[in-house]
Design goal:
CATH architecture: 4-Layer Sandwich
Radius of gyration: 16 Å
Strand content: 25-35%
Strand order of the largest sheet: 6-5-4-3-2-1-14
CATH class: Alpha Beta
Number of domains: 1
Distance between the termini: 5 Å
Number of strands: 14
Low-confidence stretches: none
Mean pLDDT: 96
Length: 209
């Protein structure tokens, strides 16, 4: 299983030349679609995770790809091949199994109701919580860890990492950070990961699991 990380919250998982794209939002400018995308999984409706232009570009290259998302997203794109999912659902697409967890975005403001948010477990190995710190319902090997957002404190990310205790962890949701900010949080997260027995790495190249 090959994981390739792109800007902000977007990454791909590839097995036997089939690819799933996760959260291709408007903050991701370095992702180029290929012709072997079988699915797109979207955690929630915020533009940094869900961008209709990105979706159209993906489908222009891989017209048979299915979009898996909550009804808050699929209802916005009725002319596109989608499948509505919610927390507790499981889907199998070619070599991939997707378990959808969580259910609610972390609260940003006390007076703003959180939108729906789905965490995703891929092949019982990689967990990505979207914009939340909802714990996975099963042990996982690798964690895509949100490290910077209006809705989080680093102490929350640290507690989440220490609770999940993955073997491998890489940062995500970090487009709003400068290079200095990335380096600072990488150093802090790497030290915390080492204490719980995990290997923390910023993905500049592919990660194989």
């Amino acid at each position: 299983m090959k994981i390739t990380k792109y800007e902000h919250a977007c990454f791909t998982v590839e097995i036997e030349n089939n690819i799933i794209v996760v959260d291709p939002g408007s903050y991701t400018t370095d992702f180029t679609p290929s012709e072997n995308i079988v699915a797109v999984a979207i955690t929630h409706e915020h533009q940094d995770h869900f961008d209709i232009n990105q979706i159209k570009n993906i489908l222009a290259h891989s017209p048979n790809a299915t979009i898996y998302a909550h009804s808050s997203i699929t209802s916005q794109i009725p002319d596109i091949h989608t499948e509505t999912v919610q927390a507790g659902d499981t889907r199998t697409i070619n070599e991939f199994s997707l378990d959808f967890t969580g259910g609610t975005h972390a609260r940003i403001f006390s007076d703003v109701e959180p939108v729906a948010n789905l965490g995703i477990i891929i092949n019982d190995t990689l967990y990505y919580p979207g914009d939340s710190f909802a714990l996975p319902p099963k042990p996982i090997t690798a964690l895509a860890l949100p490290i910077s957002a209006p809705w989080l404190k680093f102490s929350e990310a640290a507690e989440f990492l220490n609770t999940v205790k993955p073997q491998t962890v890489f940062p995500t949701h970090d487009a709003i950070l400068s290079k200095t900010g990335q380096n600072l949080l990488d150093n802090m997260a790497a030290a915390l990961a080492a204490k719980c027995g995990a290997n923390y790495t910023r993905l500049q190249n592919e990660l194989y699991l």
